[in-house]
Design a protein that fits this description.
Number of strands: 18
Order of helices and strands: EEHEEEEHHEEHEHHHEEEHEEEHEEEH
Oligomer: single chain
Largest sheet: 6 strands, mixed
Distance between the termini: 51 Å
Helix content: 25-40%
Structural class: alpha+beta
Radius of gyration: 26 Å
Number of helices: 10
Strand order of the largest sheet: 13-14-15-16-18-17
């Protein structure tokens, strides 16, 4: 066995260990303490494969990122940075499509960021400044119903309560109170709280995030929200400027993992699952650029057998809007395998047959020299390429042209 290269974290930053997506790296035991390696193995084995020091690894640690990129806080003040293979500028464009961030102004400057933590920090700054801007105008308020057991009649008398307690004087009432403690603002507060505990903000951005958080801290209830809470919300004239803010919140909440203690302060990992991001990006790109007579539906559930609760979640389904007909099923594969696996093909055939469809497509993030076009029974399977290098929109239009030409 040839000599393995031992990565020296002091090459760039004494407190940072660096990996590249899906590429192995080796670390000397003096640079990666045993308790840190064990912590990584126990808490992040789904994101990073950990080989403990042994003769197989020539006494060092072997780490391999498993399709995730971002930053993981570790004990002893260390940070693990996992860099994507995709150019940062294109990774940002993927995030921009997937999380509908194109409505947020001033994002063009972010394509010059050098790594993903810098993208995170700059987006955090944008969100914090937008919250501060909204605080100067006044946060959105709404009327909420509250019970009143005061000394006089106010609002609407609760007749049911009056029937049960006719002796109560004055009767219990329902009053409408204007408050900023509503979900629109609670989502902002929870997201700023999450960012402040990420450990990814430098002194300048941390100060701005802290200022924004303090404008909400005493005004709203701090409670957890999920990325799903940030979408399909109702906007109107008084809160329409919250839509891009909630789009940013969704991005941060989607990629903040469970909290762990690092030193005296709890910190949160920031992780992006590239397989899922590729699927979301392709779906969002299709939704933006498909001809008007076509539509794409992402993550469509198909019940195979209701009795046994067997179902499929299909990545993408292409529809003809005029007829409602399913034109094809599409499955994204964030991998560089020369040929689709038997399992991938079998899955795609099952998807197509479940919708009585004869066209199926596999979408890969790179182009291959040889086309792939086969029939499995009455289902025709073709491979499409959406390369993630160069101009993404140009690559997407080439893929779309290939798709439409084959229909």
């Amino acid at each position: 066995m040839g000599e393995r290269r031992l990565t020296d974290p002091h090459r760039l930053n004494t407190r940072t260990l660096r990996l590249t997506e899906r590429s192995p790296a080796w670390f000397h035991v003096k640079h990666l303490p045993a308790e840190v390696g064990e912590h990584l193995w126990r808490h992040y084995s789904a994101q990073v494969a950990v080989e403990f020091p042994s003769p197989k690894t020539q006494g060092g640690w072997e780490l391999r990122a498993l399709g995730w990129v971002g930053t993981i806080p570790l004990p002893s003040g260390l940070m693990l940075h996992i860099a994507p293979k995709v150019e940062i500028s294109n990774l940002f464009r993927m995030l921009e499509y997937a999380y509908h961030l194109r409505s947020v102004r001033f994002l063009d400057d972010l394509i010059h960021c050098e790594d993903l933590p810098e993208v995170y920090e700059q987006l955090a700054l944008i969100l914090a400044r937008k919250v501060l801007e909204r605080s100067r105008k006044g946060f959105h308020r709404a009327f909420v119903s509250q019970r009143s057991d005061g000394h006089c009649v106010r609002g609407r008398i609760e007749l049911n309560d009056l029937a049960r307690r006719p002796w109560a004087v004055p009767p219990r009432c329902q009053i409408q109170r204007s408050t900023v403690d509503v979900e629109d603002n609670q989502i902002l507060a929870w997201t700023l709280y999450t960012i402040a505990h990420s450990g990814l903000c430098g002194p300048r951005s941390h100060t701005v995030v802290g200022r924004a958080w303090r404008t909400l801290r005493n005004a709203v209830t701090l409670k957890p929200f999920s990325p799903a809470d940030c979408v399909q919300r109702s906007y109107h004239r008084m809160n329409q400027d919250y839509a891009p803010l909630h789009a940013l919140c969704r991005f941060f909440l989607a990629h903040s993992g469970p909290q762990h203690e690092r030193g005296d302060h709890p910190t949160l990992p920031f992780l992006v699952h590239m397989d899922r991001l590729f699927e979301q990006f392709v779906a969002a790109w299709f939704s933006t650029h498909l001809p008007e007579h076509l539509a794409i539906r992402a993550q469509q559930r198909v019940d195979v057998d209701r009795r046994t609760h067997v179902y499929f979640n299909i990545d993408l389904v292409l529809y003809d809007l005029g007829t409602g007909q399913v034109l094809g099923v599409l499955d994204t594969k964030y991998k560089d395998a020369e040929r689709p696996s038997s399992e991938d093909l079998a899955q795609l055939v099952a998807y197509a047959q479940s919708l009585s469809c004869r066209r199926a497509f596999l979408i890969y993030p790179l182009a291959f020299e040889q086309p792939f076009d086969i029939h499995v029974g009455d289902v025709r399977i073709q491979r499409l390429a959406f390369p993630l290098s160069g101009d993404l929109d140009h690559n997407g239009h080439r893929m779309l042209a290939s798709l439409l030409e084959s229909m």
